[in-house]
Specification:
By secondary structure, the chain is of the alpha+beta class. It is 28% helix and 31% strand. Strand 7 (112-114) and strand 8 (117-118) form a beta hairpin. The relative contact order is 0.15.
Length: 145
């Protein structure tokens, strides 16, 4: 009798492990599927946050669409508001001009970084550029046709 019960528990335990593995694989598949949909379905230029959003002490969107003049800073009036103590109230601005986007640091205390180098002047953004502001890392994506 004891052997029969132990066999039943063994098979139930194995079944639970398989269901757990299948659910994890399903979640990974859905996560990858939605990532590809979001990035390919946006026909615009945007900044995608590289940081894991769940590790931040403040709320941020996954991506920010760029149009016209976009201000970045700690201020609530900024187009992209970052509640990070390392970000100045008016930290940087991205301006669209002649179908290109240009990044300018607004004399921020901790600086703005493009591909690891401090931005000293107005600089044109290229697809795939990495933008660092405070603790936040962005990737500039230009999906315009």
């Amino acid at each position: 009798m004891f052997e029969l019960i132990s066999q039943i528990f063994k098979y139930i335990f194995i079944l639970i492990i398989y269901l757990f593995i299948i659910s994890i694989l399903r979640l990974m598949y859905l996560d990858i599927k939605t990532m590809n949909k979001k990035s390919s379905s946006i026909d615009a230029a945007y900044l995608k946050v590289v940081n894991r959003l769940d590790t931040l002490d403040f709320k941020m969107q996954e991506y920010y669409i760029l149009k016209g003049k976009v201000t970045i800073g700690r201020s609530s009036r900024a187009s992209i508001s970052i509640r990070d103590n390392f970000v100045s109230k008016n930290h940087a601005v991205i301006t669209e001009s002649k179908n290109s986007f240009f990044l300018e640091d607004l004399d921020s205390a901790n600086g703005t970084f493009l591909n690891g180098e401090k931005v000293e002047d107005i600089i044109e953004l290229k697809n795939g550029d990495r933008l660092g502001i405070g603790l936040i890392q962005f990737i500039f994506v230009d999906n315009r046709g």
